[in-house]
Amino acid sequence: LSVGDRVFGLIDAVSEMVVDASRVVRIPDNCTFEEATSFPVAFLTVVHGLRELGKLQAGETVLIHSAAGGVGMVAVQFAQQLGAEVFATASPAKWDHLRAMGIADDHISSSRDALFLDKFKKTTGGRGVDVVLNSLAGELTDASLELLVDGGRFLEMGKTDIREPEEVAIDFPQATYTVFDIMPIIVNEPQRLRKILEEAASLVESGALKPLPQVLF
């Protein structure tokens, strides 16, 4: 970094502070300050969840719940550039956003009910999906776990329906259930955080990752 560089990072929410250089990354020239605020938390969540914990690979299938939200939109882009086949849920009013990201209608369903289970089973020829990035709860979590293939990975980033992995294993023995949180990385691993943010900046610079929509006041 040099004096005058525009930078972004994940730091304490105050108006002004001195911060270690390891916690910030240069903003790409094709990205505004406002755009740079939109994706760091979401990108860290997606990389930690889908890649580090979920081990998502090219050619695999992934279900991203609430895909029209901040984390969801980054997750869709990340999975697509990785070469995975994306299934997505959102409220019906937001389906056009999913279509605009290149997701076909038979890969889109509502996040308000469990109809996605039968729809995506049909789309996959009865197979199901390899990975689920979850933020839903209750019967929708059950349906998502049921949709997983043998050896499938369920990644729980929501806070409203956290379950014990041992109990999940009884009802859904084919699934690996993992609850995760990014705060330990933000607080305790600045070098790892910086590496992930540098990756985000590089993808934005190349156009592979688009900043999230934002409204300025």
Whole-angstrom Rg: 18 Å
Classify the oligomer: single chain
Spatial shape: globular
Main structural class: alpha/beta
Secondary-structure element sequence?
Answer: EEHHEHEHEHEHEHEHH
Proportion of strand residues: 15-25%
- Main sheet makeup: 6 strands, parallel
Helix fraction, binned, reads 25-40%
Number of DSSP E strands: 8
- The order of strands across the largest sheet is 5-4-3-6-7-8
User: What is the number of helices?
Assistant: 9
Distance between the termini: 29 Å
Q: In terms of per-residue confidence, which ranges show pLDDT below 50 for 5 or more consecutive residues? A: none
Give the averaged pLDDT, no decimals.
94
Question: Mind explaining what this structure looks like?
Answer:
This protein is α/β, with parallel strands linked by helices. It has helices at 33-36, 40-53, 70-82, 95-100, 116-123, 139-147, 165-171, 183-188, 190-206; strands at 7-9, 24-26, 61-64, 85-90, 108-110, 129-134, 148-156, 175-179. The strands form two sheets. It has a six-stranded parallel beta sheet, sandwiched between helices. Strand 6, helix 6 (139-147) and strand 7 (148-156) form a beta-alpha-beta unit. Helix 5 packs parallel to helix 6 (139-147). The model has no long low-confidence stretch (mean pLDDT 94).
